[in-house]
Structure formats: C-alpha cells, structure tokens
C-alpha cells in the first residue's frame, strides 16, 4: 500500500499524513523533508541558492526515490503534482488523496506560516488571498485527478474521511 497526499501549501498534508500513517500502521515520508535532509538545506535555502526549476528536479527525484518504498504515506510538496508528469507517476504508483482546503482557511493558516514558503513569503496579507486563489485555480486540474478528495477545512474529520476513502478504494 502506498498513499500520496497532495494539495496546496498548509492544507495539512504533513500533519494529517502522519496521523493517517499511524492509524493505518504505515510508514510516513514527506518530500520536502526528504529533500532537506538529502541536501542539508531548507526548501527556502534551495530556492534561494538554485532557483525553483532546480527544486522541481529535486522533487521529481524525491518522488521516484520515495516511491521505491512500500507500506507508506507520502506527503508531497504543494507544487509537486503540478509539474512534468508527476501526477501521472503518482497515479501509477499508489492511491492519491487530495486535501482540499478553502482559500479562506489556507489564507488564515498561511498568513502565519508564509515565511517558510518561498513562493508566498514576500506577499502582504492583502496580496495573499489573491495569490492563493490564482495558484489554486491553476493547480486544481492536477489536484482534482486524485483518487479521493477530502475536505481539509473540516479538521476533526479529515483523518476519518481519508481512512474511509482508502478502504473504499480496496
Ligand atoms: C510549494 C510547496 C511547499 C514547498 C515549496 C513549494 C508549492 O511544500 O515544496 O515551498 O509550490 O506549493 P508544502 O506544500 O509542504 O508547503
């Protein structure tokens, strides 16, 4: 069993992913953390030093390397499914879950957590909502290809809904 969590920054892929893994007795990995450990640099540092294009290459490598593991929940970076044929790769290698959060909820969470997100860190709170809405619209065609979509605004029920979805998939 291999489960991929996809969705926008701050949708809860890492925190809900850890909880899902614990409940299903699976291992857990996060592509951002994997890259940070492999290269000894933060995601912000990698963006700063080598740019976004290079980061997207590292993400693809991380996706391929982590997908060699089985019995695992893999939380992906928010942009990962939207580049190259990554979404195709995900669909061929496991069950995908889209954690779908509203612009309002993402905006609230990210206004406190944008410093570690290079694509958002320079936005004012006023610009944030428009940027998120714009990026989400572009990314939705990729995210919506997931096998299962879960309402990530409903924090108390996210893990249960993911478990139901995975069981339904068989
Ligand atoms: C990104 C999301 C981030 C990280 C990088 C780019 C994106 O991951 O990979 O800052 O393009 O949405 P999280 O979704 O874990 O914040």
What is the strand and helix layout of this fold?
Layout: E1 2-6, H1 13-24, E2 27-30, H2 31-39, H3 43-66, E3 72-75, H4 86-93, E4 95-100, H5 103-113, H6 125-143, E5 148-151, H7 158-169
Parallel strand pairs: 1-3, 1-4, 2-3, 4-5
Helix pairs in contact: 1-7, 2-3, 5-6
Bound molecules: shikimate-3-phosphate.
Task: Supply the key terms.
single chain, 170 residues, alpha/beta, five-stranded parallel sheet, binds shikimate-3-phosphate
Large-scale geometry: globular
Count the beta strands.
5
Mean pLDDT: 96
Order of helices and strands: EHEHHEHEHHEH
Main β-sheet description: 5 strands, parallel
Helix content estimate: 55-70%
What are the low-pLDDT stretches, counting only 5+ consecutive residues below 50?
none
Overall radius of gyration: 15 Å
Q: Order of strands in the sheet with the most strands? A: 2-3-1-4-5
| Sheet/helix structural class | alpha/beta
From the N-terminal CA to the C-terminal CA, the straight-line distance is 10 Å
- The percent range for strand residues is 5-15%
Bound molecules: shikimate-3-phosphate
Number of helices: 7
